[in-house]
Amino acid sequence: MNKDKLKKTQKDKLVLLARKSDIRGAHLMKKERLIDVLMRLNIKKIRTKKDLKAQTKARRMIKNMKALPQVRMKARVIAARPAVNVPAPVVISKIGQQRVEEAKYYTGPAHTYARQEDFQFPAGYGDNRIVLIVRDPWWVYAYWEITQDRDGEIRHQIGQKGLVPVKSILRVYDVTDVDFNGRNAHNYFDIDLTGMANNWYINVGAPNRSWIVEIGILANNNDFFVLARSNVVRTPRFGMSDIVDEEWMCLEDDYWKMFGLSGGFGLGKASLAMREMFKKRLMQQISSGAWSGAVSSLASPVKKRKVPKGFWLWVDAELIVYGQTEPNAKVTVQNKPVTLRKDGSFTLRFALPDGKQEIPVRATSFDGDDTRAITPIVTRRTI
Amino acid sequence: MEKGYLALVLHAHLPFVRHPEHEDFLEEDWLYEAITETYIPLIDVFEGLVRDKVDFRITMSLTPTLIAMFIDPLLQNRYLKHLDKLIELSAREIDRTRWLGQFHNLAQMYHHRFTRARQIYCGEYKMNIANAFKKFYDLGVLEIITCAATHGFLPLMEIERRISVRAQVRMGVELHRKVLGRNPTGIWLPECGYTPGDDEVLKEFGIKYFITDTHGILFGSPRPKYGVFAPCYCKSGVAAFGRDTESSKSVWSAVEGYPGDYLYREFYRDIGYDLEFDYVKPYILPDGTRINTGIKYFRITGETDEKEPYDPHRAMEKAAEHAGNFMFNREKQVEFLHGFMNRRPIIVSPYDAELYGHWWFEGPDWLNFLIRKIHFDQKTIKLITPSEYLKIYPRNQVLTPSFSSWGWKGYSEVWLEGSNDWIYRHLHKTVERMIELADTHAHSHPGDIVLRALNQAAREVLLAQSSDWAFIMKTQTHSSYAYQRTKNHIYRFSRLYDEIKSGRIDANFLADIEYKDNLFSDIDYRMFCRT
């Protein structure tokens, strides 16, 4: 029974059905919820008792798990908010009596779980945080989550100071070699946030520096009110270090020679050119996943050959030769032995190229006394 | 006396793709194909070398997920079934191609290969590929190194980095020890993703070295005197070996690389797509979707759709020629470097193992030729493992390698871009919650079911972290499998988290996911403890 059919069924009938399935309090449910419950029981038809019996197992299982509130909660929790680890509201109904009934069956958040197929990634975890990850020497990635409460609290603060919130921004601080306290960064820049963004790729444009990002609200007097502060990350160096180890020192030229050889572009390039060449080297696909890969290590198992453009056709032909003899006989086709099935039959399939094929089939009885030979001759011509 | 060394490193990895809940599952074929086309052919090559008393050294990483699949009875049996069908198909092909001389020979070649694979698989190794690699490990010709538990891309584990990295490494080391019988000396950091400081975790587990991409060393500080041609020690004392670019290109590059030679076998012309539907139906997906069978009759031929039949003899000659060319270039490289450095250089050439045989059909033969040529035909270079090199040269420059990976563009972008960046907020949260659970139950003695739930939660965290999911999301338009896997593991973890916290563990649910995600049987959730 699918959802649409249930929807078309009168509520009275649904209640009846639910009662037969031992679902209590069905008459108090809204039709929509009732359908939900019945869907879980996977009832195929409404009328026959036999069908209901067939569902006994499922019914019991759900009954044991105290199905009613669970199902209700599921519908609510999943639709309205993150399914994971948000304490489920115990009571969601407006009717007092129903409230009591539901609370009676409520067994804790563990049972609010949707089935795997219904699981949705939560939109948030109720945190106020911003996290930075390094993408490469020039870019970092930030993701964040700010609760409505936190946002409201800060906006309230802004209001109390007689100010007006103007916009949400990310403030990106260069905190290289600094123990950041909010004011001692080398410098910073702002990024205006638009829409409902909850993540951002930030072009810091500077390798080998440390970064912190704050998300917050800028007020009309340019005061910045912080919602959350990130972790510190450091973009990697791009190029050869300036630091030289005395014990492993050599001529400047020699460092660059080794650099060029290691990078596969040989000797005699200027250091600046080397760096640029190295950038190109990293753009070359010479590693894992260089080709179309399903997994980084495997080429795609499903990629097809290219289909030619425009209208097209190809044709080939194959030939099936089949026959039957005594099951214990020996059969050769074109002088090669053939394995017979239990009933003495055999089938051979040949790719058939252009030209003439003579196909002598010879059967010899098990005692070698009798022989039969038949020779089909086939000619294929393709024009 | 040799003037320098070559360390060939093969990185063998597949994500955990075991689906007991389905009879046929497309993604399990990744494993079966890799066994038939790469792992068994490599084992065959190693066997031949040992038989012929050719001294050689190969370094190979076997990732924990791969090992977990090798030792899994369900997958072992399923692979045998898969292989038997291939043997059956190749036998039918011998009949079918009787009037097509060249194809007939190829059908016989495949039939021979598959039956040989069966011999190797079912023979002394008893359907356990890990046993095979262990044999060569014990003989000292193969150095097997470990990898992070589920091939998690470590640089993006920004939140709770130390604990996350430690859990990934610890699980890898433990499984290595359990299955292969000793502590790994080296590790393949997934995608060569290195973040300064991660080496301290490696040290905790007795790991002596790891491999970085070229710029990990070149951009290290202080500046490296010998480039990538000698290892460097991190401050922790763990050594980093940098990848050589020149030798990488000659195999990897789609433009200049050997595998693109016109005489080599064409990957994309497979009878699974080419032959009449009813005939191949038993060997493709149950719903009739055509897939690769592994039987391919054409050579690359050129930039054309008109492919010519594959000629194995000419391809073998080409593979030998390419092996000679590779060796010659390494000799020249070593001779030059040797004059330049006051020590014998090491050239580290890492590749994905699955490139050999699966994509580059002739790859295992190329390797075979190369090893034999190096052994018999010259005296300039010698094969070595990184740990042997450290024994010869225990004194090395100390520096901090740079954050790097061997992914496209050299950093994290492959695993952090529009298609996959959204997963990190969930992965990070998952780790935080796992730590919370572990800390809560750090000193208590949880009852059996709680203990099981905690351990399973730890498995789900690790599985969610596989770099493969992010990678597939990026590279494939149909990434639903990767999306689904991420979702499943996050779901399973989240549900366990709530159930453990509320003290109401659904035993059926737990049993079900223990049955599905059954790897790392000895996992201990306490590895996520903060203390």
Name a few traits of the molecule.
heterodimer, A: 383 residues, alpha+beta, 4 domains, five-stranded antiparallel beta sheet, 10 helices, flat, B: 531 residues, alpha/beta, 9 strands, 8% strand
CATH class wording of the largest domain in chain B: Alpha Beta
Q: What's the number of domains of chain B?
A: 2
Oligomer category: heterodimer
Mean pLDDT of chain A: 77
The CA-CA distance between the termini of chain A, in Å, is 56 Å
Question: How many DSSP helices of chain A?
Answer: 10
Radius of gyration of chain B: 24 Å
Percent of residues in beta strands of chain B = 5-15%
Instruction: Supply the helix-strand structural class of chain A.
Output: alpha+beta
By DSSP (H or I, 4+ residues per run), the number of helices of chain B equals 19
Shape of chain B: globular
Name the shape of chain A in a single word.
Answer: flat
Helix content estimate of chain A: 25-40%
Distance between the termini of chain B: 51 Å
Unreliable stretches covering 5 or more consecutive residues of chain A: 43-52, 57-110, 299-304
Structure description:
The complex is a heterodimer of chains A (383) and B (531). Chain A is 27% helix and 25% strand. Chain A has helices spanning 3-8, 11-20, 31-41, 49-54, 56-64, 67-80, 96-105, 148-160, 252-263, 271-283, and strands at residues 129-134, 139-145, 165-174, 187-192, 199-203, 210-219, 224-229, 233-234, 293-295, 298-299, 318-324, 330-333, 336-338, 345-351, 355-358, 361-364, 371-374, 377-380. In chain A, strands 3, 4, 6, 7 and 8 form a 5-stranded antiparallel sheet that branches. In chain A, helix 2 packs across helix 3 (31-41) and helix 9 runs parallel beside helix 10. The longest helix of chain A has 14 residues, at 67-80. The two termini of chain A are 56 Å apart. With 531 residues, chain B is of the alpha/beta class. Chain B folds into 2 domains: 4-71 and 128-264 and 312-409, Glycoside hydrolase 38, N terminal domain (7-stranded beta/alpha barrel, Alpha-Beta Barrel), CATH 3.20.110; 416-528, Families 57/38 glycoside transferase, middle domain (immunoglobulin/albumin-binding domain-like, Up-down Bundle), CATH 1.20.1430. Chain B has 19 helices and 9 strands. Chain B has helices spanning 28-51, 64-70, 73-96, 101-122, 129-139, 161-180, 198-204, 214-218, 245-252, 271-274, 277-280, 312-340, 363-376, 386-392, 423-440, 448-464, 467-475, 480-502, 507-516, and strands at 4-12, 58-62, 142-147, 186-188, 209-212, 232-233, 239-242, 346-352, 381-383. In chain B, helix 15 (423-440) packs parallel to helix 18 (480-502). The radius of gyration of chain B is 24 Å and the shape is globular. At the A-B interface, strand 1, strand 2, strand 8, helix 9 and helix 10 of A face helix 1, helix 3, helix 8, helix 9 and helix 12 of B.
